[in-house]
Amino acid sequence: MNTLDFEKPILELERKIEELKKASPQYKGGFFTDIKKLENKCESLKREIFANLNPWQKVTLARHPRRPNTLDFIRLTMTDFVELHGDRYFSDDKAIIAGFARFNGSAVAVVGHQKGSDTEENVSRNFGMPNPEGYRKALRVFKLAEKFGRPVITFVNTPGAYPGIGAEERGQAEAIAKNLMEMSSLRVPIITCVIGEGGSGGALAISVGDKLLMLENAVYSVISPEGCLAILFKDANTSIPEIAASLKLTAQDLKKFGICDEIIKEPLGGAHRNIEVTAQLVAAALKRHIDKIKKIPIKKLLALRYKKYRQMGAFSSAKNKI
Q: Would you identify the CATH topology of the domain 59-310?
């Protein structure tokens, strides 16, 4: 079982509760009072721990191996999913899921990063790090969605684009840049949901759109804390938690900056503890935003999309007096 350090006290209490429940039928009257006390204590402990997670702990939670992935959300929130394979240039990239489905009774295009649930699948899906062909497959579906007037839903969960030599030889940077350009002017609504880790251009390449939603414990950043340590920080005394805090990568930080449009609550203890409830909460948020955006004329929608990205960030300028 994959357990994060801050989850250990909770899991220890849960084990004790399960042991008492199993032993209870053997004793007259059982351990009802003891079980109830432990359950209340466990609930209180979960609330205390998860209300005070630091940014690095949120990064580890966003990377949790049992966290729901793109295929989970498709399975639990959509019907009639038809996956499309290949980019018509090189090959099929399993790190990107792309196709069409029905969401809330209407046809939509859906694209998302896909990590594996075990070592074998992670290797097969390149740990959710797409090659250029993955982004070109995504673009193929985006253009089909535009052609047939279907809203686009994307799910982001990647450490970043694959940095291998082969990926660079096949035009990784160009593939990402083209997606950014095409999505900025795609003539259909685009809703992005960051469900886990949103890393660098590898995440941005399928997340330019009209609304950016984030799960409560998801993160979204220009670089991972580890990458930032390797490239920017030369001080060996600088810790990963310090760097994670400085990057302002949590959903709460990004909501303050106006980058994230809505934070979707997760079940207490994280999305991995109740995937079904998480999917219901995501579906409700997606439906709400799609219903609103579909009513906006496409010309105005594109103007709003342009304005959204032009307003991101802050800068100041001054003229030197001679």
A: 2-enoyl-CoA Hydratase; Chain A, domain 1 (3.90.226)
